[in-house]
Amino acid sequence: MQIILTSDLQARIKAQMEGTYPNEGGGFLLGTPNGDSVQINEIIQIDNVFEAEEQYHRYAMTPQDWMRLEDEADARGLSLVGYYHSHPNARAIPSVYDRDHALPNFVYIITQVNEGKAAEQRVWRLQNDRSQFDEQELVVRE
Amino acid sequence: MANIRIPTPLRAYAANQATVTVNGETVGAALNDLVTQHPELRTHLFNDNSLRNFVNVFLGEEDIRFLDGLDTPIAADASLRIIPSIAGG
Predict the structure, then answer these.
(1) Is residue A26 a contact partner of residue A57, using CB atoms and an 8 Å limit?
(2) CB A104 to CB B9 under 8 A?
(3) Mind listing the pLDDT tens digit of every residue in chain A (142 residues)?
(4) Fold topology of A2-141
(5) Residues 27 to 86 of B: which have CB under 8 A from any A CB?
């Protein structure tokens, strides 16, 4: 599956994830599924509500964040298609913790941030049987 | 009948519906009716007969964990909502 992102949105994700370093940051992806691709139309940064001392390797949002963004997406004819978060000083590969909390049919963009600078950015989807993530093609357009 | 709002990524397992109408006098009974109607949802909501840890169910504005959990009684026209916990690490 192709996950299509504009270079502007990609730059904004990277800037946000550098901004939350050394802690993890993240947010929701709003977009449009279209057969074998998903177009990302908008990113919405959400505060990390995990315990402060754990935020260097954990990220969480509240159920109220989900309700608000899902209602907004539905009202605007968009879909809540996924979420993005950072891995400070770690590869952009889903952790076991990521998999335990993941949903199928959802796009996961992970950005590696090394010493405050965004590096590798990769995109993943969970298999329907929840057994593992598969990497997807990230397509960046002007 | 009560209704359950389905989170966007799981709507594919509920005939692409955002809301499903269900029968049941408790939250648990309503969820059982939901997964009976749409069996593919079960593995994403339950571990055996318990809700998965990252699955939250709200009755109106209230998390059922702060009510009586799956035993929480519901009105005939109740609105339930399934909210995944979004977390990463």
Answers:
(1) no
(2) yes
(3) 999 999 999 999 999 999 999 999 999 999 999 989 999 999 999 999 999 999 999 999 999 999 999 999 989 999 999 999 999 999 999 999 999 889 999 999 999 999 999 999 999 999 998 889 999 999 999 8
(4) Cytidine Deaminase; domain 2 (3.40.140)
(5) 43-44, 54, 56, 58, 63, 81, 83-86
